[in-house]
Amino acid sequence: MSAHCQLTGRKPGFGNAVSHSHRRTPRRFDPNIQTKRYWLPGENRHVRLTLSAKGIKAVDRMGVEKAVRLVRARGHKV
């Protein structure tokens, strides 16, 4: 599973882990990605979306129909 949100486009950030002695090591900041299953009443079926925590809250606000429309507009197959 790739670490990016289908709705918001959130993806990993990169930076450095800095130790006590101030040595720097490359690291990766992953978003909180969850796989969530929603009922899509317009198509009478379930859809599985890979969303960040912020994306899940956005779906709760806007509704699953609009969210799936936006995900498809981004070019993801649902």
Q: pLDDT under 50 segments (min length 5)?
A: none
The end-to-end span amounts to: 15 Å
Apparent shape: elongated
Record field, number of beta strands: 4
Q: What fraction of residues sit in β-strands?
A: 35-45%
Query: In terms of quaternary structure, what is this?
Result: single chain
GO cellular component, one term: ribosome
Pfam family, one: Ribosomal_L28
Protein name: Large ribosomal subunit protein bL28
GO molecular function, one term: structural constituent of ribosome
Written account of the structure:
The protein is α+β, with helices and mostly antiparallel strands and 78 residues long. The protein has a domain of 46 residues. The protein is 26% helix and 36% strand. It contains two helices and four strands. The strands form two sheets. The protein has a two-stranded antiparallel ribbon.
Short characterization:
The protein contains two helices and four strands. With 78 residues, the protein is α+β, with helices and mostly antiparallel strands. The protein has a domain at 32-77.
Q: Topology, please?
A:
Layout: E1 13-18, E2 24-29, E3 33-40, E4 45-52, H1 53-62, H2 64-73
Antiparallel strand pairs: 1-2, 3-4
Helix pairs in contact: 1-2
